[in-house]
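Internal tracking record. Fields below are filled automatically when a chain is submitted to the structure queue. Please do not edit lines marked as system-generated. If the sequence contains nonstandard residues, flag them in the REMARKS field before resubmitting.
Queue: standard
Priority: normal
Entity type: single polypeptide chain
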Amino acid sequence: MGRTDGQTWRRIPLTLRAVVGGILIGLSAANVWPILLLSVGVPIAAGLELVFLGLYVWWASGVGWPKRFQAERRDFARANPISGGQWGWGLLAAVAFAATVHTAIVLLFRLIPFPAAAFHAGYDFSFIPTVSLKWLACAVSALSAGVCEEMGFRGYMQRPIENRHGPIVAIAVSSVLFLLLHLNKSWSLMAMTPIVLGAGVMLGVLARRSGTLVFCMIGHTIMDVGLFAYWWTQIAGTFAQRPLSETGLEPSFFAETLAFIAACALFVAAVTRLSGASLKETRATD
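SYSTEM-GENERATED OUTPUT FOLLOWS
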């Protein structure tokens, strides 16, 4: 981008720049994997995608050209060091996030019938010859979405808005855009809206509190492995539970509710301790 073009870009309101930049950084990179998968098949595509993701994170985190935007890219990518204390609580928060989303989906489809056809549409892995390769495709699909969407939404979109307007506005904007850009999916029923929006808020809070995108990427990837392998392609099994309107109240529903509450509580506790670990590390280095 030339200096004149850069000045024109700077004249656009910051929030709009952050939204456009986040979408371009996140979604354009996430779409490389489907092209590779359909072009060269799973094993080669998986290897190429891992190389691409490594280069993508390397560049987006502030390395390489253009040098005059390196500090800005590093800030947007939240490329900060992670202490030992942060790793433990961050990984726990990532797992609790994924568990919260999946237990929420289970509870939803105990209240309304599971629309299997809508969830399975567009996720046909029948062209992949073996189960092991299907698992590999699910894992790389999840990793691609987790890395690229977090870099785009919680990094390049949310971070500059945080810097100007604070975390509440930034998390709200990134979460709503995250929701809107998933509404074109076949599974995006109205009843899924609070789950997708809630996931965006949780990831936004995790990014803000930890000061890094690493735990968001891990949590998002774990969540998407479950979505790809279970809800979307059924490689890991089929959801066969019936709504309460057919079964009546039963012990499994109470167990599922408790699992959801426990996952939420664990996420809140881990994020709280993670924030404390970040503060303690900052004070120790002052």
